[in-house]
Write a structure and sequence with these properties.
8-stranded mixed sheet; 8 strands; alpha/beta; 2-enoyl-CoA Hydratase, Chain A, domain 1; globular; 15 helices
């Protein structure tokens, strides 16, 4: 599969074309360009390394949205076995944007909650562009409750620009569905692992993101709002999305530093879209390692750890005594 380059990858693509021309010329004219080829290959590696070690927040967002990036079901087929998809929320219907089911990872049975996008128009319509309706979140909760009943860990693969904001969602109470998930996941009596594998947008991501261990792939992002929407609100123009992305602190490194996520999962150089199998191997290893840790905890330890983890989020500052006194006098 030929990888579609992003705009900032064009210098690498140009060097690769020049390398191919050099090899072709050497072959056609039976000339020895071995030293030139080695020099060009070294330059390509150095250029690639320099670009990917200095990505901007907006470039991370572009990689997270790459159409050839592995989606949730790509990881399901590579990281899990015995996958059986379960359908419907038992209230309204089945949401194709949120495939859920039972599977095995290693030797452990688990419930798997995912958010799935499409790669072409037909699949995007089927998956609603990865934007779930209320029934998607209710289906996810139904499977989580089933997992709790049978003492199975829950694994959530997050990849959505946000929950669907249309009239149908509002009519069927999307805010209530997400809020109930937040409450119930906080009290679920089995281990929960969540991984942002691409886009982690707003409440749509948070609706399956309350977990004992929140991980994020190296080039994924997790944010309260998309850069474009933030730009439209603050600058009245979506063209300032790159600036908004920087301000939102939505990259894996920013989120790790702020304590919003617990672990960054390494991707292949250039992004997960360049090697689906290697990306899945890294993710599978992280999931198995963390399952070992959290399944060893008692239920009481698990719930205490989860509560303390989310209580630590955020920062606050208390005013000085003199400021409080001044405020009282006024």
């Amino acid at each position: 599969m030929e990888v579609q380059p992003l705009e900032f990858e064009k210098p690498i693509l140009e060097l690769q074309r020049r390398l191919q021309d050099l090899k072709s010329h050497s072959h056609e004219h039976d000339l020895d360009f071995e030293r030139e080829v080695e020099s060009m290959e070294l330059k390509i590696r150095e250029t690639r390394r320099d670009i990917y070690e200095n990505l901007t927040a907006w470039q991370h967002v572009q990689i997270a949205r790459h159409i050839q990036r592995p989606f949730a079901l790509d990881y399901v087929t590579r990281c899990f076995s015995e996958w059986v998809e379960l359908h419907g929320d038992r209230v309204f219907g089945d949401d194709k944007a949120m495939p859920c089911g039972l599977a095995k990872i290693g030797t452990r049975h688990c419930a798997v909650i995912t958010q799935q996008k499409g790669r072409d128009t037909k699949e995007n319509v089927k998956r609603n562009f990865g934007c779930a309706y209320p029934e998607g979140y209710r289906k996810a909760l139904r499977l989580m409750k089933m997992a709790e009943k049978f003492d199975l860990p829950v694994i959530c693969l997050i990849d959505t620009p946000g929950a669907y904001p249309g009239i149908g969602s509002e009519e069927r109470h999307i805010a209530e569905a997400i809020a109930v998930n937040l409450r119930e996941m906080m009290n679920l009596r089995v281990p929960i692992l969540a991984v942002v594998i691409g886009e982690g947008g707003s409440g749509g991501a948070l609706g399956i993101g309350v977990a004992d261990r929140v991980m994020i792939l190296e080039n994924a992002y997790y944010s309260v709002i998309s850069p474009e929407a933030c730009s439209a609100i603050l600058w009245k123009d979506r063209r300032h999305a790159p600036e908004a992305a920087e301000a939102l602190k939505l990259t894996a490194d920013d989120l790790m530093r702020l304590g919003v996520v617990d672990e960054v999962v390494q991707e292949p150089e250039g992004g997960a879209h360049r090697d689906h199998d290697l990306a899945a191997a890294h993710l599978g290893s992280a999931l198995r390692r963390n399952l070992e840790r959290f399944t060893a905890m008692s239920t009481e330890e698990l719930l205490k750890h989860r509560y303390e983890k989310f209580r630590k989020l955020g920062n606050f500052a208390e005013g000085t005594k003199s400021r409080r006194a001044a405020g009282a006098q006024s």
